[in-house]
Design brief:
The chain starts with a strand and ends in a 12-residue tail after the last strand. The model has no long low-confidence stretch (mean pLDDT 97). The strands form seven sheets. A seven-stranded mixed sheet has the order 15-16-17-14-13-19-20, with helices on both faces. A six-stranded mixed sheet has the order 10-9-8-11-12-23, with helices on both faces. Strands 1-5-4 form a three-stranded mixed sheet, with no helix packed on it. The protein is 38% helix and 22% strand. It is α/β, with parallel strands linked by helices and 496 residues long. Strand 8, helix 5 and strand 9 form a beta-alpha-beta unit. Helix 9 crosses helix 10. The protein contains 15 helices and 25 strands. Bound molecules: 2-aminohexanedioic acid. The site of 2-aminohexanedioic acid has 10 residues, from loops.
């Protein structure tokens, strides 16, 4: 079935002003068109931003528990439709069905968490130094937000942004990736069914090149939250800062797993397979480097290679599939280019390395799970984000050496260590310079109740998700209120 999706502006489903269209294609089978979407232009963005602006004041004044209840209702609707939506994520994005369902689950978890924030959003009340005077701080919304999301978590990442933005009292213009527009549209449909008032949430489809920058820099947009590549994030943040807009970006990663000589190798292999090839390596948290203590390097490499050789490529809807396709032809080209770069850099290609075109896979964007061994820290395949099923295995002399290698990249999103030694784990926890650190678990699978984000070029501005320092900080600012009910002039600092 081909879904014909539209923009959603000021409470109405509408076509783009200029009527141009784009197609969303199943990456596992390019003969399967998932959706036809409007290729919006500047006029559509203008209308959406105006609608969000006009709806802002009323939404800001809607009690936060009421805003939260709409999101909690959306959580229930997502639960009811989990199977259908999980299948759609797989069909439109390519990840295997259990992961497609996981994507929906992450959105559900975020909806329950952020919906409940409507009854928290706490500030602080502190004593005044003067009599008959109140001092408190409250969280207030920022205004109209542009939310720009990628294709690798077609429901979860939009949920990470839309729910906290709305519960905090902001209104939204949402521009999802043009590779997963149908999933994004379903999420908006659900929020509409849950009762979002007209104009509070607006959806505009189109390409990043076409409208992304125009939206982010629009004079009536107050804040921007972006997830995607470091190059786009840095560019947006430069422009937005010049326009005095709030901006937070979740960007690339070059995440690493350290395998120590005292680590459980079977567990480390499972973690490397899951982190390296889960979601076909297309997570910003993917483990693209495995740094192995020299004493267990050969053993680990042969176990890892054996496990990778068993992975079955195919359509993610089939139970027999372990690894799905990459998202599109340009991503396929980029990943294959990196494989060539790795070969030229004289890394040893141990397994994989080619496009995979057997049987029905000929119709999709499949790349064999690929392992390079003998990778050294300065090689480009050890430094740059590939975002595909390519893992570099590297050797380290000891823990200190391994940590140095992990930290010696421009990114700092996620890292992991496999060790049974409590001291090694404590040192790693302290010295790994990444936003997320995993001990005896892979680099992927962050939970929504804690902040998500990275150091260095992995993140700019506020972190995402829940917990202290999470997305509520991104979508609110602090206001401090002093109320004097003494009925006379009191002078702070002077009269106390
Ligand atoms: C991403 O790849 O952009 O921690 C997000 C994880 C997921 C989120 C990944 N919960 O792997």
């Amino acid at each position: 079935m081909v879904e014909k999706v539209r923009n959603f502006i000021n409470g109405k489903w509408v076509n783009a002003a200029e009527g141009r269209m784009l197609k969303s294609i199943n990456p596992a089978d390019t003969t399967d068109t998932v959706g036809i979407i409007p290729r919006s232009g500047q006029k559509d963005i203008d209308m959406a931003v105006t609608a969000a602006r006009n709806a802002y004041n009323k939404w800001r004044l809607t009690p936060a528990p009421g805003r939260g209840e709409i999101i909690l209702k959306a959580a229930e609707l997502l639960c009811k439709r989990k199977q259908e939506l999980g299948g759609l994520v797989t069909r439109e994005m390519g990840k295997v069905l259990p992961e497609g369902l996981g994507d929906v689950q992450e959105a559900i978890d975020m909806a329950y968490y952020m919906g409940s924030e409507g009854r928290r959003l706490a500030g602080e009340t502190v004593p005044s130094e003067l009599a008959n005077k109140d001092c408190k701080s409250v969280r207030v919304p920022i205004g109209v937000f542009a939310l720009i999301t990628p294709w690798n978590f077609p429901l979860a990442i939009p949920a990470w942004k839309i729910f906290p933005a709305l519960v905090s009292g902001n209104t939204v213009v949402f521009k999802p990736s043009s590779y997963t527009p149908v999933c994004a549209t379903k999420l908006v449909e659900i929020l509409v069914e849950a009762g979002i008032p007209d104009g509070v949430l607006n959806l505009v489809h189109g390409t990043g090149d076409g409208i992304g920058e125009y939206l982010a820099t629009h004079p009536k947009i107050d804040g921007v939250s972006f997830t995607g590549s470091t190059s786009v994030g840095e560019k947006l943040s430069r422009i937005c800062s010049a326009f005095d807009k709030e901006i937070s970006c979740e960007m690339g990663g070059k995440n690493a797993i350290i395998v120590m000589d005292d680590g459980k190798l079977e567990l480390a292999v499972e973690g490397a397979i899951w982190g390296g090839f889960g979601t076909t390596g297309q997570r910003c948290t993917a483990a693209s480097r495995i740094i192995v203590h020299e004493a267990v390097y050969n053993k680990f490499l042969s176990m890892f290679t054996k496990a990778a050789s068993k992975l079955r490529l195919g359509n993610g809807l089939l139970k027999t599939t372990d690894v799905g396709p990459v998202i599109n032809d340009s991503q396929m080209e980029k990943v294959l280019d990196y494989i060539e770069i790795g070969k030229k850099e004289r890394a040893r290609l141990v397994i994989g390395g080619k496009a995979y075109k057997k049987g029905p896979c000929a119709k999709g964007y499949f790349i064999e799970p690929t392992i390079f061994a003998g990778v050294t820290p300065k090689m480009r395949i050890a430094q740059e984000e590939i975002f595909g099923p390519v893992v570099s295995v590297m050797k380290a002399k000891n823990l200190e050496d391994a940590i140095r290698i992990v930290n010696d990249v421009k990114y700092g999103l996620s890292s992991a260590i496999y060790t049974q030694d409590v001291n090694n784990s404590a040192i790693a926890e302290r010295d790994l310079d990444t936003g997320l650190v995993y001990i005896n678990a892979s680099t992927i699978g962050a939970e929504i109740q804690l902040p998500f984000g990275g150091t260095k070029k992995s993140g700019l501005g506020h972190r995402e998700a829940g917990g202290k320092g999470g997305a509520i900080d991104m979508f609110t600012k602090w206001k401090v209120i002093y109320r004097d009910y003494s009925g006379r002039l009191q002078k702070a600092q002077i009269d106390k």
